[in-house]
Amino acid sequence: MVKRTLPTNPRTRRLIKLLRKASRSNNSDIWRSLSDSLCAPARQSVSINLGKIDKLTEEGEFVAVPGKVLGFGSLSKKVDVAALSFSQAAREKIVQSGGRAVPLDVLVNLNPRGRGVKILR
Description:
Blueprint: H1 10-26, H2 29-38, E1 46-49, H3 50-56, E2 62-70, E3 80-86, H4 88-96, E4 101-103, H5 104-110, E5 117-119
Parallel strand pairs: 1-2, 2-3, 2-5, 3-4
Helix pairs in contact: 1-2
């Protein structure tokens, strides 16, 4: 049986530890789910286009993406997005629509309980 390992990127490893600690201290399953998604193998990494975010969200929602947000498509709603990383075009389009593009660790500080956050994969 092959032993599962964590990602080798030190920033991602720190983020996984932070999310698991937040899950335990705030009794919130959303952070544990995000950390498990970040531990997935590279071939299962998540990348979501803005068009999909626009289709699956409502005005004013906060969305968490355990991967990269790409700039294909348009965003017609004011949506706040937290992700592991953003392409430059995606970041510009999110800000242009009136939303915020923040890293996942900032989301943990903004909303420790994780209420009202939707995970997109």
